[in-house]
Design brief:
Layout: H1 7-28, H2 34-48, H3 59-69, E1 77-80, H4 86-94, E2 98-101, H5 104-119, E3 129-130, H6 132-138
């Protein structure tokens, strides 16, 4: 049998590095924040060629922060897929927005329409508040 996700083999390949990283975090006394997180944020920002990067606790936090940074507010409609983890919908609901579930083809078309409106400075583009994580995963 060929395993779809061979976690035992993955653990073989990553065990030593993972345990060393866990040890470094434990020994630092900083389970949240700390130098390891700062080093990770700097390295990831450099990798992506961006100025800043923020490490968060979960995908739910990442989606919520992304939506808030895009200016999404209570009552805004957020296009997303019905085939995503529950955290996507929960993040939308946490900010008081309304999830609108659409199939992939419609979602991709809407993303392009919003991108064109935004690039042309269309004031109606404010309503194009998207779940970026979900959208990018689908394209």
């Amino acid at each position: 049998m060929i395993l779809l996700n061979d976690f035992a083999r993955q653990w073989e390949d990553t065990r030593d590095k993972a345990l060393a990283a866990f040890g470094a975090v434990g020994e630092s006394g900083w389970y949240v924040l700390g130098q390891q997180l700062r080093d990770f944020e700097v390295a990831l920002a450099q990798f992506w060629g961006v100025r800043n990067c923020v490490g968060v606790a979960s995908g739910l936090d990442a989606i919520e922060i992304s939506l808030r940074s895009l200016g999404c507010k209570p009552g805004d409609k957020v296009l997303t897929t019905p085939l995503s983890a529950f955290a996507t919908t929960l993040a939308i609901l946490k900010i008081g927005a309304v999830p609108i579930f659409v199939i992939r083809t419609i979602l991709v078309c809407w993303i392009w329409i919003c991108a064109v409106k935004c690039s042309k400075g269309d004031p109606t583009s404010d309503s194009c508040c998207l779940s970026i994580c979900t959208a990018m995963r689908l394209i």
